[in-house]
Each structure stands twice: as structure tokens, then as C-alpha cells.
Design goal:
heterodimer; A: alpha/beta; Rossmann fold; Alpha-Beta Plaits; 2 domains; 6-stranded mixed β-sheet; 4-stranded antiparallel β-sheet; 13 strands; B: 545 residues
């Protein structure tokens, strides 16, 4: 790490509670986003992502728990904080009689200011016509208006709430490049998203929440550690059964699941933390080929919602988990 | 076209255009299951129950003749309610209710039609419906049928209610039809407006402007002519309603005007529907500037940008209304000469000048009451921005809540002064020209501005609701409507003073022409300030969304 010492995290949330009537939106949520990182914020619909973001923006007042944004109170210091924060909602609504260019400039002026050259460059990259009126933009183009305004604003922290819904794949790529540029400039990004490939490509660390509570948080590497790697190997051995299998070695190893042996081919799943022992055992049989697939974020994500998927108790969440 | 295609019966294509109308109508009625019954029952009961109140108040023929005489000879009363055609109990009910009921039926109908046509398209909901088995003409047809149903029930309620309380059946039906007919005509006008404009707000505003024009024309015509025969009266649909002359040798021919008017407007709306794409309008959006002007820099610039068109429209409307009423003020008071007894009364009260002052005071009072609609609408724009999720990204900028609210509130509070100021100025200048006395401009303008504290009280109430009960902001309209009704029909019901005092307008002196003390203004301004402060304090504390 070449980063200078970060005195305080950009976002720090501890034990946040928020209820709307009888609905519990947040139920002890924790979230830490270090300065200068791109942080993925994952969870199914209704998990509490947008509620958390609204608390961080000082739009909602939390019932219990603490939230700190850039080391200040998001409710009391809202105006001062918002000079340093750009926000892109998941569903952008524009004023029908204001042009896209006017809205972008307005948001720039409402924040800490805007880099004009960067604004024009972004308009070009996102292929956005700034002279159209709010009513005539498609969903994707409305989203672009908010994104251009956010990326061109002179801020320290970007809070993006499912910002790419409605963008086509080309624009998705432009978006990803922009986020990487922002990180390289030292800005912090909180990215709430459903597009797991996007999160995998962009995020240094992720937090997965569910029913208003954080269930997992860490770097992708750390999270992968908690899941299984699948391994397909072809083993040597002149004839007969490979020694590793014959000895019952693999099946006996801790953390090995779904072992399937067909002749020389071995398929298995192993808890990523126990990979070392499995590889050593395989090596004793002489490996001819080996494919190891790390868990995808999707598998990671699904693992946390498995209960719901199996039980089908909460259809909303099942649908999100795909 | 091949012969085969031509052989398809014409009825098939037409019925395909109407496919799904039944489902859409049921959807509309389901969505409006509170709104339509509330309007229809409320309006029907007010009209029907007026019979018994009038019976109690003006039980003898002599009392009724006296009321009819004084009302017919008074130009300002005719401008407000139209002339009295018969001094029977029914005749008085029709005199007091034809205009009031017709205006409210028109408002109800335009709300129903726009809600199920342009608003559905604007929000994108219509796209989902039209992708299903829904014909091109079905949404408009369903909206018009919903309006027809509401107006038909209203006609039955009024006719049956009045007939049951002993009024002649023919007159009761005529009054019901005058009110329902106006409703349907404005349903047709709203259907046209919904095709022309891109937003539901504009469609409602456009139809409302036509209604305001109709009211001004009828008022001016009736003030000038005690027999409702003026061309101005006949030019306005509200004039047709009174010229149906319920309980006074009904002129059923006036119904033909409603029928023809409704048929024409509905046909025009269908023709326009056929010529446009879903979601598009005939007044399309032009491209805007690529960069924001310097003025669009913060919450004040934004609020001004969003509300300036509405304020301009209201100001223009008030200037027109003021000019018209100022022009007829002299003629309206000249009329009194015809009635010996009333003239004596008025002369005792201060003569000709006094009478004109009374007319001007009535008009100023009306301008003041209607201005509350502007002010409440301007305040509730805050709630509209909030529920449309447009407030959130603005408040996520370096904008305090109070500053954001202050932008829209400045437009609401200052706009009230602007609207009333220009209306009063136009009234004063127009009247000053007609009597050749420039010295009248000042007092009339001052009288119009004296309405401001009462309007601000209702404005403050809207802020209070927005801050403390954001989900119940529609109740503000009920309060504004209640104050209008109190001012409009309250006096002839001889309501007790405490009831009239419920409305802030009840506390204002009748200006010009009477002596004003500071006390009521101070109290109203103080109350307004308390409402404003409490509303803003609540808004600072509450959740957004």
C-alpha cells in the first residue's frame, strides 16, 4: 500500500437502526468504507441499501446507532458535507422543462463546484445531448445526466446507488473507466449495485447486507476464502487407482465436498481455506492437468441467500439472487 | 388495399380501437373510489340541503321577494351569482347554486379526465397498459365514461334530493342538468387539453384557465345585464347553466348547447388522439440550452425557474379579471336606479359612491379568496418535488433544508403579493378610466393588498401541513375549498358569525369604502407566521420521502 495514512474512514456506520412504522428497514447495520477505496454495497431489493444511503445523506434520521461521513455527522453537518459529496440515485427524475445541460450545471453549483472541461469531456464519452429537455430523455440517458454531474463535480466522495440500471453495455464500460479514474484521483466511491461483474471489476472491498444487517464484509479475496473452490484434475498413475484416491486421502481431508472420481478424472469442491492440503494430496498422485475455478461473486452472493432461495420464503429476495 | 381488406366491416376496426375500455373504466373507478364519491356526495348534498336552509331563512313570499329584489338590482351580486329569475324557493336555490355547482362540477370533471389520460401517459403507466389488449381510443373513452358516470349520479342526486324536499320536479331536473351538463362540457375541454399539453399539470391549468375565463365572462355579462341576456353571458358555458332557468319557466333549449358543446369537444379530442403518438403532445418540448444560465444557481433560482410560468399565468389572469370587473363597476351600480327601495337603502348608506365601493369590495374579496388556490399550490410544489424524488438529489447537494424550502416559499408568499397587486392595479386603473378619476387607483390597489394577510394565513397552513403532516397535504385543499364555500354561499345562509370567522377572510374589513383597523391584519399575520415557523421546524426534523 502506497496510500498515505488515512486518519479516519470515509464512511463509518455502527449498529444503525431505522424503522418505518412496523417495517424494519435497518436492523443494526455496520459499514466501513476506507478513504480512497471503491466499496461495493450488495444486497437484494429491500435489504436496506437505499435507506442506509439516505441516512448517510442526512435525508433520514436514524433511530439508533451512529453514522459518520468524512468524520462528521451526516444529519447535523449535512450542508457542509454535501459540498464534498456527489450522489447518483438509482432512479433519476428530471424536471421536464429543464435541459440536461442545465441540470448538470445546477448540480455542480449545488455541490462544491464543477470542472467544466471534464464536464464537456464526459458528455462526449457518455454520448449525451445536453440540449434535450428532461421529459424527452430515456431512462439510460437520465442516468447519464446524473452520472456526468457526479463525475464532473469537485468532490471527495461519490455515493452511487445502482447507478448503471438502464445503461447499455458500451456505456457500462465508460462508467467503469470513470470509476477507476475517480479512484486513481484519490476519491472514495460507495457503489451499491446488483451487477456483480461490475462490482467484481471495480471494488476493492464489498459489504453484503441482508434484511437491514451486514452479513459479510471484506476484500473480495477475503470473501472468496470463505467459499469453495472447484477443482478438476487429471491424475497420473500407470494403471489402476491413483494413490491419492486409493488411500481415501481426498475424501478424508477436511473441507472437501462433492468428490467425484471417474477413472483418472477427479472433481471436487474444497473450502478455499483448505486448498493447500488438497493440492498436496493431489501432487502425490502426479497431476497431469489441473483446473481450479475460484468462486464467483455470484456464488458468494447466492450462498448468503441460500436459505431464502431454498425456502422460497421471500420471493423478492429469491428473484434478486436469480 | 386489397378487396379482402376492404371487406373487413368498419365496425371491427372501431371496436378494436375501443378494446379494453371496460377494464380501464373499472380501473379508473377503483382508483377513484374515494375521490369521485366524495365529490359527488359532497356537492350533491350541499345543493340538495340548501333547499331546507333557504326554507328556514326565507319562509315567506315577502322575505323571498325582498331578497330577490335586492340581489337582482345589485350588480356585484349578479356578477357573483347571476340574476334571480324567480323568487320562488326553487328559484332562489337555482340562483345561488347554478353557478357554484357548475364550477365545482367542472373542476371535478377536469380532474377525473386529466387524471386518467395525460397523467397516466406522463407517469409512463399508460405505456404498460397500452402494450396489453387496449385500443388506441380506450383510455380517453374510459376517462370520459368515468366523468359521465360521476356527473350522471350528481344530476340524479340533485334532482331527486330537491324534488323530495318539495321543489317542482322539472326545475329540480333542470338545475341538476345545468350542473351536470357543465361538468360534461369541461370533461370534453379537459380531454382536448390532455392531448395538447405534455404534462397533467399544464392540462389542468389550461382547462382551469378556460373555466376562469368562463366565470369572468358570465360575471361581466350579468353585471351589465340583469336578464342574463348579454352576449358575454351567452359566450360562457356558465352562462348557459343559469340560462336554463331552473324553476322559472325552464328553457330546455339551453341543454342543446351543452350537448353540442360536449359532442364537439369530445370529437375534437378523439381526432387529436388519432393524430399523435403515445406520450407525445401537440405542444412538443423544444431543445433547451446546453449550459445553465447564471440565474439557475441554487434553490431560489431553481424554484423561480419551476414556478415562474405558473405565476405569470395567474398574474395575467388577475390582470384580465381586474380589468373586466373595473370596467363594469360603474354600470353595475347604475342599475340600482331601477329599484326604488334598494336605491333608498343604498343612498342612506352613502349614495352612489358607496354602492360602487361595495361592488369593488366584493370583487376584491373574490380575487383574494381565489388567490389562496395559487398560494397553496405554490407551497405544495415542495411536496410534489419530494414525492417525485426530485427533492432528494437537490438536498444531497450543499443545500440546507430551510434554504430549499425557502426558494419555493418565496415564490408562494411574494407571488401572492404580485398576483393580488397586479389584479388590484388593473381593477383600479380600469375603474378609474371608466369614471375618469385617477384617484381611485390607490384605494383599490390598497384594498387588494389588504387581502394578502388572509391569503398568507392559508399559505402558512399549507406550510404547516407540509412540515408536520406531509402525507395529509391534500387536506389543505379541503380547507381552501371550505373557505371559498364560506365566502361564496355563507352570507346568504345567514351563518352565525363564529362560523364565518373560521375563514381568515371573515376577519377582513370590506375595502374599499370602510374604515380599516390594524388589529385583524396583525392577528392574521401573526397566525401566518406561527404556522410558517411550526411547519418549517417540523420539516427540519422529519424524514425526506
Amino acid at each position: 500500500m502506497t496510500k498515505p495514512i488515512a486518519p479516519a474512514p470515509a464512511i463509518r456506520v455502527d449498529g444503525l437502526h431505522k424503522s418505518f412504522g412496523r417495517t424494519r428497514a435497518l436492523d443494526g447495520l455496520d459499514l466501513t468504507v476506507e478513504a480512497g477505496e471503491v466499496h461495493g454495497f450488495l444486497g437484494p431489493n429491500g435489504a436496506g441499501k437505499s435507506t442506509t444511503i439516505r441516512v448517510l445523506l442526512g435525508l433520514l434520521r436514524a433511530d439508533r446507532g451512529t453514522a459518520r461521513l468524512l468524520d462528521r455527522d451526516p444529519w447535523h453537518d449535512a450542508v457542509a458535507l454535501h459540498r464534498r459529496v456527489a450522489y447518483v440515485p438509482g432512479d433519476v427524475t428530471l424536471w421536464r422543462n429543464l435541459s440536461g445541460g442545465e441540470v448538470i450545471d445546477l448540480y455542480g453549483r449545488l455541490r462544491g463546484g464543477m470542472d467544466r472541461a471534464r464536464r464537456d469531456e464526459l458528455l462526449e464519452r457518455f454520448e449525451l445531448d445536453p440540449t434535450k429537455k428532461g421529459r424527452t430523455y430515456s431512462k439510460g440517458n437520465r442516468q447519464k445526466v446524473a452520472l456526468v454531474a457526479a463525475f464532473a463535480s469537485d468532490v471527495d466522495l461519490l455515493i452511487l446507488d445502482e447507478p448503471t440500471s438502464g445503461l447499455d453495455p458500451l456505456m457500462e464500460e465508460v462508467f467503469q473507466t470513470c470509476v477507476i479514474e475517480e479512484r486513481d484521483r484519490g476519491r472514495t466511491v460507495l457503489l451499491s449495485s446488483h451487477v456483480l461483474s461490475e462490482v467484481e471489476a471495480l471494488c476493492d472491498r464489498v459489504s453484503i447486507i441482508r434484511k437491514g444487517r451486514t452479513v459479510e464484509s471484506g476484500s473480495l479475496g477475503e470473501l472468496r476464502h470463505l467459499t469453495r473452490t472447484s477443482i478438476v484434475a487429471e491424475l497420473a498413475g500407470p494403471d489402476g487407482v491413483p494413490p491419492a484416491v486409493a488411500g481415501g486421502g481426498l475424501a478424508a481431508l477436511p473441507g472437501v465436498h462433492d468428490l467425484d472420481v471417474q477413472g483418472h478424472r477427479v472433481r471436487l469442491q474444497v473450502d478455499t481455506g483448505k486448498l493447500d492440503a488438497v493440492l498436496r494430496s493431489l501432487a502425490t498422485s502426479g497431476v497431469r492437468s489441473l483446473t481450479s475455478t475460484p468462486p464467483t461473486l455470484e456464488e458468494l452472493f447466492l450462498r448468503h441467500y441460500q436459505d431464502d432461495v431454498r425456502g422460497g420464503a421471500d420471493r423478492d429476495e429469491t428473484a434478486v439472487a436469480r | 388495399m386489397t378487396a379482402v381488406a376492404a371487406a373487413v366491416p368498419a365496425g371491427t376496426a372501431r371496436s378494436r380501437q375501443l378494446a379494453g375500455t371496460g377494464v380501464l373504466l373499472r380501473l379508473a373507478l377503483r382508483r377513484d373510489r374515494v375521490m369521485i364519491p366524495a365529490w359527488v356526495l359532497g356537492l350533491g348534498l350541499v345543493v340538495a340541503s340548501l333547499g331546507s336552509s333557504f326554507e328556514a331563512l326565507y319562509g315567506t313570499a315577502a322575505e323571498r321577494a325582498q331578497l330577490a329584489g335586492s340581489m337582482t338590482t345589485n350588480g356585484s351580486m349578479r356578477a357573483l351569482y347571476g340574476p334571480v329569475f324567480s323568487d320562488s324557493l326553487g328559484g332562489l336555490i337555482a340562483w345561488r347554486m347554478a353557478g357554484f355547482g357548475a364550477v365545482l362540477a367542472a373542476v371535478m370533471s377536469l380532474l377525473i379526465v386529466v387524471r386518467h389520460t395525460r397523467e397516466e401517459e406522463e407517469t409512463g403507466r399508460q405505456e404498460l397498459l397500452s402494450a396489453a389488449m387496449v385500443g388506441r381510443r380506450a383510455p380517453l373513452t374510459a376517462a370520459l365514461l368515468a366523468a359521465l358516470l360521476a356527473n350522471a349520479v350528481l344530476v340524479v342526486l340533485i334532482a331527486a334530493g330537491l324534488a323530495r324536499s318539495g321543489r317542482p320536479a322539472a326545475g329540480s331536473l333542470a338545475l341538476g342538468l345545468a350542473i351536470g351538463g357543465t361538468g360534461m362540457l369541461f370533461a370534453g375541454l379537459a380531454a382536448i387539453a390532455a392531448q395538447l399539453t405534455e404534462s397533467a399539470r399544464m392540462a389542468k391549468g389550461l382547462t382551469g384557465a378556460v373555466l376562469g375565463l368562463a366565470f369572468a365572462l358570465r360575471g361581466a355579462g350579468d353585471a351589465a345585464d340583469a336578464t342574463a341576456g348579454s352576449p358575454l353571458t351567452w359566450a360562457a358555458p356558465l352562462g348557459w347553466a343559469e340560462n336554463l332557468r331552473a324553476y322559472a319557466d325552464e328553457r330546455w333549449g339551453a341543454l342543446l348547447l351543452f350537448l353540442a358543446g360536449t359532442a364537439l369537444t369530445v370529437a375534437a379530442a378523439y381526432a387529436l388522439t388519432a393524430r399523435r403518438d403515445l406520450g407525445m403532445s401537440f405542444l412538443p418540448a423544444r431543445p433547451g440550452p446546453a449550459r445553465a444560465p447564471r440565474s439557475l444557481a441554487g434553490p431560489f433560482g431553481l424554484a423561480w425557474r419551476l414556478q415562474r410560468t405558473t405565476l405569470g399565468g395567474w398574474t395575467l389572469g388577475y390582470v384580465c379579471a381586474g380589468a373586466v370587473f373595473g370596467g363594469i363597476a360603474k354600470g353595475a351600480s347604475d342599475m340600482v336606479g331601477g329599484n326604488q327601495r334598494t336605491r333608498e337603502i343604498f343612498e342612506r348608506m352613502g349614495g352612489q359612491a358607496r354602492l360602487t365601493d361595495a361592488f369593488l369590495a366584493t370583487m376584491v374579496g373574490m380575487l383574494g379568496m381565489v388567490a389562496a388556490i395559487y398560494a397553496a399550490g405554490a407551497v405544495l410544489r415542495l411536496r410534489g418535488e419530494e414525492t417525485a424524488d426530485r427533492a432528494e438529489p437537490v438536498l444531497a447537494g450543499a443545500v440546507g433544508r430551510l434554504r430549499w424550502a425557502a426558494g419555493h416559499l418565496a415564490v408562494a408568499y411574494a407571488g401572492t403579493v404580485v398576483v393580488l397587486g397586479f389584479g388590484g392595479l388593473a381593477l383600479g386603473i380600469s375603474y378609474g378610466i371608466s369614471v375618469g378619476d385617477a384617484g381611485r387607483v390607490g384605494p383599490v390597489l390598497a384594498a387588494a393588498l389588504a387581502q394578502v394577510p388572509a391569503v398568507w394565513t392559508l399559505t402558512g397552513l399549507a406550510v404547516l401541513a407540509f412540515g408536520l403532516l406531509p402525507r395529509a397535504t391534500t387536506a389543505v385543499w379541503a380547507v381552501v375549498g371550505g373557505c371559498l364555500a364560506l365566502g361564496w354561499i355563507g352570507p346568504s345562509l345567514r351563518l352565525p358569525q363564529w362560523a364565518m370567522d373560521l375563514s381568515p377572510y371573515g376577519h377582513l374589513p370590506k375595502l374599499p369604502g370602510t374604515h380599516a383597523t390594524a388589529a385583524p391584519f396583525v392577528w392574521l399575520l401573526a397566525l401566518s407566521a406561527v404556522f410558517l415557523a411550526a411547519g418549517l421546524a417540523g420539516f427540519r426534523r422529519r424524514d425526506i420521502g
